[in-house]
Amino acid sequence: MNKKSLAAATVIFGMLLQTATVFAAGEKPSADFFETAWQEATASQAYGFVCSITSSSPKAASNSLTGDQKKLVDLTFAALKRYKRVEQGTLLGEKHKISTSFMSLNTLRILDQMAAGQFDLEKAAEKMKELKKQNIDLVLADNSFYYKGDNGWKTFQDADLATNLYNGVLGSPFTKPLEKNSFTFKNYKKSGKSQMAIYSGTLTSAETTSLLKPFMGEDEAKKRDPAPVELFITGDGHIKKLNVVDKVVVGGLSFTVKEQCDLKLKGMKIKIQSGATLGSKQELIELLTSIL
User: Fold this and answer.
1) CB–CB of 48/268 below 8 Å?
2) Helix H or strand E segment including 50
3) 86-131: per-residue pLDDT in tens?
4) Which pairing describes strands 277-278 and 153-157: parallel, antiparallel, or unpaired?
5) Whose CA is closest to 60, among 72, 50, 46, 73?
6) Distance CA 64, CA 121 (A)
7) 160 class by beta-carbon count within 10 Å (0-12 exposed, 13-18 middle, 19+ buried)
8) Running DSSP on this structure, what letter comes out for residue 150?
9) Contact status, residue 225 vs residue 201, Cβ threshold 8 Å
10) Cα separation, 176 vs 213, whole angstroms
């Protein structure tokens, strides 16, 4: 399964704060419109985001399966339909604060564990029914980490880890997962003040591998073409959201992987929890490993 590092798990998406020239209704945006939005997104050090990854529409090529084959296909369908990961976070660069929270319903891990021989098909089906969502909240303020798992808020200090995390976040803006040269104007959505320009492009090869690795393993994910992206930019030049919809075929199984990110430009706040008890870096790493 995909076990990202602490920095990589927190770093996902940034956004722009400056305004740009509003495009006229019915006209194709200029190259400068896209370039300005892109550069502002790259430079931003204050943003909020909510991103979700799901899978849907599983289909099997054969309808003649019997016995354990059908049970395995049914289990795989259940895993794909229920799988969900949601991450939301905020970066306040000037205040040296980061917050992020993860929700994971990692049904795919059960398939991996079964494939590794940890339990049989019947036990895997039981675990699939019993599986519940996992949550973790994390806040970093200067050199202090605050995290919440199943046992309330805990805290510890680690200057080196904090520095690495900040550098990782600031070095991985919203635009990093996107292949810039792939984007072209597609069309407009809505009209008036709510009008947005939609651009079609792709994720980078590395980001495509990261997105699809939990569904097919790293080796197969590396063989995939870059995943398609729709990027939405508001009329006043702010990147608003992106959608990824990638259709996948693995053997005789087909399904769709979806990622959607909504971006926030203003009004972000990060609350520091009071009353946190003493925790440790090792416990935080174990919590992140268990959920990612």
Assistant:
1) yes
2) strand 46-60
3) 999 999 988 999 999 999 999 999 999 999 999 999 999 999 999 9
4) parallel
5) 73
6) 19
7) exposed
8) S
9) no
10) 18
Cα–Cα distance measured from residue 272 to residue 39, given in angstroms and rounded to the nearest whole number: 31
Both tokens of residue 15?
A: 């956004």
Flag whether pLDDT at 18 surpasses 80.
Answer: no
How many C-beta atoms surround the C-beta of residue 47 within 10 A? 24
Gap between the Cα atoms of 67 and 240, Å rounded: 48
Q: Is the pLDDT of residue 263 over 90?
A: no
Dihedral angle sign, alpha carbons of residues 186, 59, 248, 78: positive
Cβ distance 103 to 83 under 8 Å? no
Q: Indicate the average pLDDT of the chain.
A: 86
Per-residue pLDDT, 63: 67
Short-list 262, 94, 260, 243, CA closest to 170: 94
Q: What is the pLDDT of residue 161?
A: 94
- Look-up: residue for tokens 């699809």? 212
Q: Quote the DSSP letter at residue 182.
A: G
- HSE value, Cβ hemisphere, 13 Å, CA-based, for 280: 3
Question: Would you say 53 and 212 are in contact if contact means Cβ atoms under 8 Å apart?
Answer: no
As given in the structure block, the two tokens for residue 37 are: 């939005």
How do residues 35-84 score in pLDDT, each as one tens digit? Answer: 999 988 888 889 899 999 999 989 987 667 678 888 999 999 999 999 99
What are the pLDDT digits (tens) for 198-225?
999 999 999 999 999 999 999 999 999 9
Nearest in space to 248 (alpha carbons), one of 279, 276, 212, 284: 212
DSSP structure string for 199-252: EEEEB-HHHHHHHHHHHH-HHHHHTSPPPEEEEEEETTS-EEEEEEEEEEEETT
